[in-house]
Write a structure and sequence with these properties.
The protein has about 150 residues and is mostly helical. About 60% of the residues lie in helices and about 0% in strands. The chain starts with 7 loop residues before the first helix and ends in a 10-residue tail after the last helix.
Length: about 150
Amino acid sequence: MSDKKIPTNEFLNKLLKTSSINRFIKRYNEDMDLYPVFHDYISQLCVQKGVSRDRIIKKADISKTYGYQIFNGERNPSRDRVIQLAFSFEMNYDETQELLRVARKTALYPKITRDAVIIHALNHGYDVASVQEALYELSVTILGEDR
């Protein structure tokens, strides 16, 4: 029987103290992987916001084919593509962090210059083109560019 809505720090402490990962997983399985499937999540966002997939893909500056593969669950987007989608959904910082969690990507971290620019852009309602320009002006890798 699993504890309901166990706080993450308590959950981690239980994990660190367990002698058997198999027993731990069996006991707490329903408390793990609580995030929805990414493509279902963004499809639901389109419904909630009353926008089409086409519009989101175009605003994200993602190729139509790749965008539909993401929405259909055929491709897992990179962290940068998830961030581009956040801008196209006009998300704020907290919503973007949640989108990154659902996509199982690393969160934005304000002490990393690139992430700081992205956080600032989210907070100020930039679109994808504007954040790309800001990143470029600071000689920071733009979204979607190979490192």
